[in-house]
Amino acid sequence: MIRRRSFLAMTAALSALSMANQINAEVKMGDDGLHKQRFFLDSFLEMGSDLEEAAAEGKGLILLFEQRGCPYCRELHTVNFERPEIVEFLTESFVTVQLNMWGDREVLDFDGETLSEKNLASKWYVNFTPTMIIIPHEAVGAQSVAEATAFTMPGYFKPFHFISSLEYVASGAFKQQGFQRFLQEKGQRLAAEGIEVDLW
Q1: Per-residue H/E/C for 16-54
Q2: Does 46 map to a domain?
Q3: What average pLDDT does the segment 69-85 reach?
Q4: pLDDT of 150-177, one tens digit each?
Q5: Number of folded domains in the chain?
Q6: Cβ(96)–Cβ(83) under 8 Å?
Q7: Average pLDDT score over residue span 27-47
């Protein structure tokens, strides 16, 4: 005999599972085994040109490295990219180019070198997925990714830290202070307004 409390718990679990499956089903998978988003730029993979085009719209450039079967990449798509406030801020402030850490497509680096995605990842010391390299629009003309980059997310960042990193670059705060200080001040401002910070 199933007790009422057990039945309610089982019903809630099934409902949550159904909702998760519905969300996950909406995330499209490409032939390369990477999750796809409608806002990803269909790029010729010419880094300098992509940055110039983004800057012409007043936006920065995000270079997102992922790989097939990456559970944290899936988390990025099924959690962070399911939040409207994140996608809205991201698309208003940046153009996003997806790269495959083990891919063979040719990429034209900022320094003029042409190489495969996997060799580019190695050259740029990308060791984790997802890795997001965030470049401000002011970096147009940079001769290397090191010169262009304002902030790098090596691995998965939960929603609060993720959107905060985007704000950190888009606002120009990266020029004046470190990310931890920026994050601390943001948390203090929200707490003063009575807003609970959602770390999950």
Answers
A1: HHHHHHHHHHHCEECCCCCEECCCECCCCCEHHHHHHHH
A2: yes
A3: 97
A4: 999 999 999 999 999 999 999 999 999 9
A5: 1
A6: no
A7: 95
